[in-house]
User: Fold this.
Amino acid sequence: MSQKRVKLNHETSCCSICLDLLKEPVTVPCGHSYCMDCIQSFLDKEDLKKSRSCAQSSKSSTPRPVLETDTMLAVSAAAERAERQRELEASLKKIEQRIQNAEKDMKVLRLEMEKINDSADKAVEDSEEIFTELIRLTKKKSSDVKQQVRSQQKTEVSRIRQLQEKLEQEITELKRKEAELKELSHTEDRIQFLQYDLSFTSLSESSELPSTKIRPLRYFEDVTAAVSEGRDKLQDVLREKWTNISQPVTEMDVLTTNPQPEPKTRTEFLQYSCAITLDPNTVNTQLSLSEGDKRATLMRDEQSYSSHPDRFIRWRQVLSRESLTGRCYWEVEWSRKRVTVAVAYKNISRAGSMTECAFGFNDKSWALECNSSSSYKFIHSGNKTPITGPWSSRVGVYLDHSAGILSFYSVSETMTLLHRVQTTFTQPLYAGLWFSGYTGATAQFCELK
Assistant:
């Protein structure tokens, strides 16, 4: 209706000569309306040609037509002008409001950018100072270790040399006595023989070799082992903290605080896939790692691993190298009887009772027990929840650390949710495996593309 009204107004309120809105509209006898100046100019030209006709209908008129003021087209032109003016002003107000809003947003973004730049500059400056101090401390510790080793080396070498000197003196004396005894053994003088024999007995009883106790040969190897352990712990700390450093940057959204929706399809889950490897320093001695530390196998005999404070002593468990924060997704392929897929905090106990160490039996771990009898159990803080769902040898795990979401899925041709946890995670998590089945059971973190 509005389009029709605008078209009608445009046809009736415009001059057909100048094609603009009528100015001082007048009407000729045939009923058409024009601007006063336009029709006068037109009629003047017609007078020169001695023929007069309407500019629109070409209807001839012998006498010059009388022009009458069209008052109706003039309250309508004014009204249309007023209406257009109101529409124009309304449009201007909208545009001005949008400009103001956009300028406010620009100001917010500028302030946000300034804060980001200031914060980033300060973080870089502070971190450089911290790393410089860390390097200084590391160099100092390196110098201290070197000085300590060299000092101990000097002490031990001096002790050995003293023993060597005593032994050389003793050997020289013994060789001298040996020569005398050999000479005595060939003498025919009985008295001399008996005298030397008594002197030798007295010497044997009073002579003692100096102490030759040698300290263990692994003394300095233990120093190397201690330094290596310190390096490994530092690497673990840096790896864990680096995840916490990078996460706010990668997930920061300046314009919106609305959380991203949880994935629904496997394709959506795969965009959060992460590569996970198992940490040899945590693996129980009855587990063997292979496939680039992605696969764990339960063995009959204990494996040969060096001692490490992070190793699980009693329970046949292992944790991942990587700490897990933000949004993560991974899949585990398992076989043989019973395998537990879990996540846990780094500070879960390594030695002790089931409630201290076993995945799912404390408040530091969450676990899904997978059984070859086509059953599942979710375990946390010792509470077991039976789960019904399609059995599969592959389990998918989705973690949204900041949202406190942990979900376990049965993965085959489709994905089926087995159990979902909503909680608050206070530390970075680590992926874990626990074998409570028979020898030969395996579990492997899958390559996801």
User: Anything to note?
Assistant: The chain is about 45% helix and 20% strand. The radius of gyration is 48 Å.
